[in-house]
Amino acid sequence: MPVLHRSRPAMASTFELILSGDDPEHLDAVASEALEEVGRVERLLSRHDPAAEVARLNRDAAVGPVLVDVELFDVLRDCLDWSRRTGGAFDPCAPTGRILEDLRIEAGRRAVRFGAPGARIDLGAYGKGYAVDRAADRVASYGVAAMLQVGTSSARGLGSNAGGRPWVVALRDPFAEPPAMATVDRFVLTDRALSCSAVFGPGSGRSDLLDPVTGSPLERPAACAVIADTATEAEVLSTALLVMGRERAREFVSGTAAGRPAPRVAWIEQVDGTTVVEWWAPTLERIR
């Protein structure tokens, strides 16, 4: 069965698409449409492109209410919901403000304004997950099996690989120094998404993850991998759980099981120089 690989740069990352099917021309058309969807989402959510909706919001919403696109309005309401659910650990306004305090929305006319002059929205990781999900929706609408990846940190599997085999992903050791690409686990990713975040990037001595309460970078070395139904949820939680810290994160994950499907979470730390992975989901289908 033919397998097609396509990629495009977006959101300071590389989005990769692996498609499996019987018709190479059809796969190519589906890949082009899916990757164009990634570009469309980038043009909507970018804070760097002056023409993007988010950039316009950041420029004008401190002055007065800004009427926004229907899709962006829904994204912002989703961000507010995630911030509430995580107790503020997820906050795309940090460090310029707090989303629960500084983002004011008027549902009746889809207007948004900031309550603080310096507040800004940065949808970084959320935006990457959202782009993966929108691209996956495009692929799924054609009934094509696919794996979508963003760099080495995120993935979403749809259907099965060539020959009906499940998609298998490897979890990179976040403590391995570059250019090493050591892995700490391998598992099946069927119709679910994965995101892995680390307090410190490879070779970095300062974290780009901030505590929304203090505005300071996280300091304790750790990483968190999340498997969830959507890439957006996995991206949100892989960073929010790190902000919470190990104990509060575990309490949060155990508390989600009653109301909705609990994500599968791996907490990754180094103990005496050895990388230790603790999955909070014993039913994960691992590949050895």
The outline comes out as globular
User: How much helicity do the residues have?
Assistant: 25-40%
Q: Strand-and-helix sequence, N→C?
A: EEHHEHHEEHEEEEEEHHEE
What CATH architecture label of the largest domain applies?
Roll
| Mean pLDDT across residues | 90
Q: Rg to the nearest angstrom?
A: 19 Å
* DSSP strand count: 13
According to CATH, what is the topology of the largest domain? T-fold
Low-confidence stretches: none
CATH H level, superfamily name of the largest domain? ApbE-like domains
Main β-sheet, in a few words?
8 strands, antiparallel
Number of discrete helical segments: 7
Can you identify the CATH class of the largest domain?
Alpha Beta
- Write down the domain tally: 2
Beta strand % = 25-35%
User: Based on helices, strands and strand pairing, what is the structural class?
Assistant: alpha+beta
Terminal residue distance: 25 Å
